[in-house]
Amino acid sequence: MSIDQTDKIDFIGTSRDEKVILTISDHLEWDEAGEHMLLLQEKVNAYLQFIEEVRYRRTTQKPIQVS
Fold it and tell me: How many CA atoms does the CB half-sphere of 53 hold within 13 Å?
């Protein structure tokens, strides 16, 4: 997965202290900064939507960390 796949969560893991960690993979260069920022904004919004979804809350009650 990568930043240009805005409808996907790149990585999901758990920490030793039981937090859920969501990671965004950003491999793009910043030569097109405006477009890059839009993709990053869409990706972050997708992560926020994932966190807010009921199906996430049903699967775990662990705290979330986005990195």
Answer: 9
